[in-house]
Amino acid sequence: MDRTRLQDLLARESAEAERLNPRSKAAYARAEHLFGRVPMTWMNKTAGAFPRYLDTARGARVTDIDGHEYIDFSLGDTGAMAGHSPAVVAEAVQRRFAEQGGATAMLPTEDAEWVGAELTRRFGLARWSFSLTATDANRWAIRLARAVTDRPKILVNSYSYHGSVDESLIVVGPDGHGTARPGNVGAPCDVTLTSRVAEFNDPAQLERELAHGDVAAVLMEPALTNIGIVLPEPGYLAAVRELTRKYGTLLIIDETHTFSAGPGGCTAAWDLEPDLLTIGKAIGGGIPAGAYGLSAELADRLLGRADLDLVDMGGVGGTLAGNALSVAAMRATLEHVLTDEAFAHMAKLSERFAAGVQEGIDAHALPWTVSRLGARSEYRFASPGPRTGTESEAAGDPELEDFLHLYLANRGILLTPFHSMALMCPDTTEQDVDTHTRVFAEALAELAV
């Protein structure tokens, strides 16, 4: 690839983004009382000099304050996989908050048991508890794992994603052993004191780390996502389950992003058998919500421990966790929006999206690949596709990624800002997908000139 041409095209698209979005640019300049000028500093992870500011969002469409409408394949990086403001969820939230009242009264509602039973139907775990984020669900699952095993360490895969959980910010270093993940800010201690790490798709490395006998739980995504989709190789997940049982280690599956694989995520699609499962983002239809599930055996072990304070000072819970509003949103989302039929529709669209991307790659004989996980597709600047998190991180090309993101956004298409991921929702259409295929092909043609 002609890097000079790429730089020229990136500069052109950056200038066009500034021209098209004067109100967003001005709003960003005025945001002097926000740390980093945005509500959360990660919102600065965007192609161009400033983020586009949200005005409205419905289904698979968003508009910004400059009046531009976008086909949204980002969908809040999975948080809006149900689509933006599904009508049935909005009605449930309105009913709970405005008509019944009491978003957070520290009292349970009957909706909670319905949601727990539905999560059991989908994922197989027998007992459920709720949080506001998947990050908190992971934190609490880790505490429970440590409590019941009396072991201090957690093992994760290199470059996996589990939110801002301290124990997860570890990667495999050049020497093959754990080291702090680049960019880990203000770590409370050396991460190797709390964590071990192994490459995804490397059962030998996993066994080497588990053999120390100090790992309470393996916390893993069944397919890597936030570093780019990395799918498990045949037999790998079965080996993980066999090894965790061999060494008396619990297995926590984080389905927050891999929920895209189907109504029960990868756990149902691939017949996985975790001891705990964590999930968040999409299950609330855009309202903050998370959950963690436990096997019946593990739940009984924990509840049978008289020395564990699971009610007051156990470090597991939050005042707003399991609040009536979040639980109402989860019920409406799971009952009426992210249904089995919706997932089938979304998967077909994702397959169509991936095929369109592959056509563009093949037309220019590019050494790129496209990966898919149910409703989720992603293109990577490497061929063959990466098989570990470290390989996936090394395959990144920020300059090329920024060009593609800006090119698409300037023409009314949004991808996830952290990587080149496209997600389908129940309101996404074939026309939306085909629009991306056309604009993506135009971008590649400009690069190839």
Question: Can you characterise this structure?
Answer:
This protein has 449 residues and is of the alpha/beta class. 40% of the residues lie in helices and 15% in strands. It has 14 helices and 16 strands. It has helices at residues 3-20, 22-30, 87-100, 110-123, 134-149, 203-210, 236-246, 265-269, 296-303, 324-337, 340-363, 389-394, 398-409, 430-448; strands at residues 54-58, 61-64, 69-72, 127-131, 153-157, 170-172, 178-180, 195-198, 215-220, 250-254, 276-280, 290-294, 369-373, 376-380, 413-414, 421-423. The strands form 4 sheets. The chain has a 7-stranded mixed sheet, sandwiched between helices. A 4-stranded mixed sheet has the order 1-2-3-15. Helix 1 (3-20) packs parallel to helix 13, helix 6 runs parallel beside helix 7 and helix 11 (340-363) packs parallel to helix 14 (430-448). The longest helix has 24 residues, at 340-363. The chain is globular. The mean pLDDT is 96.
Q: How are the SSEs placed, and which strands pair?
A:
Elements: H1 3-20, H2 22-30, E1 54-58, E2 61-64, E3 69-72, H3 87-100, H4 110-123, E4 127-131, H5 134-149, E5 153-157, E6 170-172, E7 178-180, E8 195-198, H6 203-210, E9 215-220, H7 236-246, E10 250-254, H8 265-269, E11 276-280, E12 290-294, H9 296-303, H10 324-337, H11 340-363, E13 369-373, E14 376-380, H12 389-394, H13 398-409, E15 413-414, E16 421-423, H14 430-448
Parallel strand pairs: 3-15, 5-8, 5-9, 9-10, 10-11
Antiparallel strand pairs: 1-2, 2-3, 4-12, 6-7, 11-12, 13-14, 14-16
